[in-house]
Amino acid sequence: MQKSAKDILIGALQETWGIDPAYSTVDLDQVPIDNLLNKASSSSLFAPKQIIKVKGVMKLREGEGRKLAAYFEKPNPDTVLVFLGGYLDRNDRKKKVFRVLEAGAEIVDLVPLSENQTKIWFRKQLSNKEISIEEEALEALIELQGTDLGRLHSEIEKLILFAGGHKKVSLQMVNDLTGNFREHTIFDFLNAVLVQDQIKALRLSHELTRQPAELLSMVTLLARRIRTLIQIQELSTSMGLSEMARQIGASPYFLKRLLQPAKRFRRQTLINAIDRLGKIDDCIKNSSLDSQILMEMLVWDLTRTSGEGRSTAR
User: Fold this and answer.
1) Residues of the domain holding 290
2) Is residue 271 part of a domain?
3) The CATH number of the domain where 244 resides is what?
């Protein structure tokens, strides 16, 4: 989404200016605010106009925010600053630096596409190349990559090359591509957890999480699958499969495979699992050595054949 918005902005500026601007990035986590403002106030050596993408703006202290506010009072007309704020909650929007941005810049909320909107977009991109995709394969990709259009665009390019002369992308192609041609994929792990095959789930958890990035993907996908199970538990008492699918934003075929697993787990077990996955996510991002151990403990609990799990969150 961010990449698409950036491309649209640059295209609009190029059309308005009639030239190609210089483009650079400044991370305020690593560069003082004074360096950014000096760069913004100066003309680029490579083009008469410049665009600077700015990261880390929400971490500015009050004094640094005042310097930014002073620049906004007399900005360089040949420079466009694009601030990437990331996800902002209610507390972020109360910060003084956010009020500075509101006063001196235009705030644009990039709302992620829903899963259904993402699927429509994805199918259209493949259709432009005269390629279709199986519903189950598309479900797997969305579950793995989320709805970030930048990541999905990269997957489209790889799938087109991987598909070769085939005109339809299959689930096996997705598994082969995302699994980097390994014997097992993360979807094998998810299925093992859902059917409570404890030995296989623990073995795959160990096999697939040797790198922090892989463990993070596993945490993300397992959390998404568990949230879907919770939604099914909440809606299945009052809705049929088709209506549930519309409500959740998934295909009936995909949900049908999750009906039995949704009955297998206690609701509190799933809620506790979401809480524990959040803590594992924090451990991964803080480079804690406990993350893989905590993941294996969670897998152990979820795959206990009694389906009861432990009643306390870790």
Assistant:
1) 186-302
2) yes
3) 1.20.272.10
Backbone angles phi, psi at 83, to 5 degrees: -90, 125
Cβ-proximal residues to 308 (8 Å cutoff; 6+ apart), any chain = 266, 269
Closest to 215 in 3D by CA, of 150, 299, 149: 299
- CA dist 313 and 275 (Å) reads 7
Q: Are 151 and 145 a contacting pair, CB within 8 Å?
A: yes
Q: What is the pLDDT of residues 186-239, one digit of tens each?
A: 788 888 999 999 999 998 888 877 666 678 878 888 998 999 999 999 999 888
Q: Running DSSP on this structure, what letter comes out for residue 51?
A: E
Q: How far is CA 298 from the centre of its chain?
A: 22
Single out the residue in 104, 130, 145 at which a domain terminates.
104
Dig out the tokens for 151 from the structure: 């990541």
80-100: pLDDT as tens digits:
999 988 777 788 889 999 999
84 pairs with which residues across the strands? 55
Higher-pLDDT residue of 295 and 12 is: 295
Q: Are residues 130 and 100 in the same domain?
A: no
Please classify residue 12 by burial: count the beta carbons closer than 10 Å to its beta carbon, then call 0-12 exposed, 13-18 middle and 19+ buried.
exposed
Does any domain span residue 310?
Answer: no
Q: By CB neighbour count within 10 A (0-12 exposed, 13-18 middle, 19+ buried), where does 271 fall?
A: middle
Bridge partners of 24? 52
Q: Is residue 307 part of a domain?
A: no
What pLDDT is recorded for position 178? Answer: 63
Answer yes or no: do 130 and 71 share one domain.
no
Q: Which residues contact 254 (CB under 8 A, 6 or more apart)?
A: 135, 136, 139, 245
| Edge-to-edge strands, sheet with 22-27 | 22-27, 50-55, 79-84
Choose one of 178, 208, 223: the last residue of a domain: 178
163 with 234, same domain?
no
Residues 122 and 215 grouped into a single domain: no
53, β-bridge pairs: 25, 82
Residue 180 region, left (φ>0) first, then alpha (ψ -120 to 50), else beta? left
Task: Give how many domains the chain has, as a whole number.
Answer: 3
The pLDDT value given to residue 283: 87
